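Forum: Protein Structure Q&A
Topic: Joint prediction for protein chains with partners

I've read a bunch of threads here and the consensus seems to be that you should model interacting components together rather than docking separate models afterwards. I'd like to see that in practice. Below is the full input, 320 residues plus whatever partners are listed. Could one of the regulars post the assembled result?
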Amino acid sequence: MSLEKFVEDFEEAVEDVEPGSLTALTKYRELEAWDSLAVLTVIAMVDAEYDVRLKAEMLKANNTLEALYAQVCG
Amino acid sequence: MMTTAAKFENQQILVVGATGGLGASIARQLQEEGARLILAGRDTEKLSALVKDLECDSVAVDLANAEGRVQLVDAVDALDGFVYAAGVAPIAPVRYLKDADVDSCLNLNAAAPWLLVRDLLKKKKLNSGASIVCLSSVAAGRGTAGYSAYSASKAALEAFVRCLALEIAPKGMRANCIAPGMIETDMTEAAAERISDEALAEHLKAYPLGVGKPSDVAEATSFLLSEASRWVTGITLSVDGGYSIH
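Posted by a regular:
Agreed with the consensus. Here's the joint model:
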C-alpha cells in the first residue's frame, strides 16, 4: 500500500480523470467528475482494493487524496 | 365475523429472515393475527430476543449452505404459509463487484429460497392451500447504479416465483412476491453509509408518498398470506410509495 498507488487507484475509479493528473494534494471533491456515482465508486474501490469500508461521510470529511489515504490506512 | 387476532388462527407460518427489519415486522404482524410462527434467522441474539417477545418457535440457521437449509426444513412441520425475507444488498459499481458479493446475492437472495421451497415441496411440508411470499425489491425492475448484483438476484427471484405459481396452483397453493421500495430498515441504513447525502435526498424525491415503514410491507405480506388474496398468484406486488409509477 502506498500513497502513489492510492492516487492511481483513485484515478482509475473516477472515470473521466486524465491518468497522471492527480496528486496527493488534489482536492478530490472539487474535481469536475466528482458526483454521487464517483462517491459510490471510490467507496467500492477502497473496499475491493484495500479491504476497508469507508462511509460516504468520510469522503466529505476529508479534502485531499493524501488525507483520504490516511483515513484508509487507519 | 373474523377478528384480526383470528386471521391466521391454527395456521403455521415460517418466516425466514426474521431477524432483519422487514422480517421482524412481518413476524410481529402475523403473531398479532393469530399465526403459529416459526422464525428462522442467522443472528442468534436477535432471534432469541424476538422469540422471547413473540413467544414462538425458532430455528437459528445459516442459509448460505445446504446444511442450514436441510436443518430448517427438517425442523418444521407442515406449513400454511412461508415468507422469505432474508437477503443481502452489497452496493458496488460493476467494475468493483467482488466475487463474494455476487455469490452471496445469488445464493441468499435467489438460490436459497428456491431450494428451500423445493425441499418443502418434496418433503410435503406445505399444506394444500399454502401461500408463499418472497420479498423482492423495486430494484428488480428498475436499474440503479451500484445495485447490479442485488437487482439481478431479485429479478431472478421474481421469475422463479412466476413459474412456481403455475406448478403449485393445482394444489390450491399460491406464490407471490412483494417489491418494497425504500423502507427504514437496517439494510437501507447500511446502504445510506455508502451513498452521499445528496444522492440519497435525490433518490427520495422519486417517492411520491415518501419513505416506507416495515409495517407497510408487513400488511402486504399478511394480505398475500391470507384468504383475502385467494385469487392472487404469481404476481409481484409493488409496495413502494409510488416509486415504480414514474
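The mean pLDDT of chain A is 93.
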